[in-house]
Amino acid sequence: MQDFKLYFDLGWHHILDWQGYDHILFLLALCGIYTISDWKRVLILVTAFTVGHSITLALSVLNVVHVNSALIEFLIPVTILITALSNILNKKPKPKAIRLKYTLALFFGLIHGMGFSNYLKSLLGKSSSIVVELLGFNLGLEFGQVLIVVGVLLLSFILIMIIKIKRWDWNFFLSSAIFGISFVMAAERVHAILN
Questions:
Q1: Mean pLDDT by 10 residues, the chain (195 residues)
Q2: Which of 26, 94, 132, 177 to pair with 63, CA 20 to 30 A apart?
Q3: φ, ψ for residue 101, nearest 5 deg
Q4: How far apart are CA 88 and CA 176, in angstroms?
């Protein structure tokens, strides 16, 4: 149980680390356009993302899947950029667009899971029994994600319902800012793929 707690703590500290803010940006883009009243949609989105990154985190750490880390580090901001752009372009989401968003969250989770796996592999080293560590780290990541999502939903609620900022204005501002940041991140990382 001591290893479980250690890796649980490492998981949630990793997702909340401001130096690795790309995962926080993705969650902001994914959930920032919603309010607390949309909690069911957010739950489905985050669950789809979780399923995706849990699968590839496990497969990558167990050495079943091998992907160039420079490519993954480039694709992570691309997932953020696409999610932010989707928010901007879908002013009034239709049911098909919402289903597409769930599918993209699952697919993008696969990419983010491979990004998490590089960090986890470096922690595990040559350890032969990694089930407890993998479970602890993954649950820690989920706990950190829940903290971020609750914070984002509360911020959206305060800005939209209390301060009375128009929902579209908040969506456009947040998504545009995230789009710009992720574009710069992707541009900075593209050289690593080409070298």
A1: 85 86 92 88 89 88 86 94 92 73 92 84 71 87 91 93 94 96 94 80
A2: 26
A3: -65, -40
A4: 7
Predicted model pTM: 0.89
pLDDT at 180: 97
What distance separates the 2 farthest-apart alpha carbons in the chain?
Answer: 54
Q: Is residue 84 within a helix (H) or strand (E), and if so which, with residue range?
A: helix 69-89
Residue position matching structure tokens 């079943």:
64
| Contact assessment for residue 34 and residue 153, using Cβ atoms and an 8 Å cutoff | yes
Residues 6+ apart with CB under 8 A from 2: none
d(CA 159, CA 35): 10
As a whole number of angstroms, the distance between CA 7 and CA 9 comes to 5
Q: How far is CA 30 from the centre of its chain?
A: 8
Reading phi first (left if > 0) and then psi (alpha if -120 to 50, else beta), residue 125 is in left
Angle at 57 between CA 73 and CA 108, to 5 degrees: 55
- Residue pair 137/60 in contact (Cβ under 8 Å)? The answer is no
Q: What 3-state DSSP class applies to 75?
A: helix
How many C-beta neighbours within 10 Å does residue 159 have? 18
Rg of the chain in Å (alpha carbons): 17
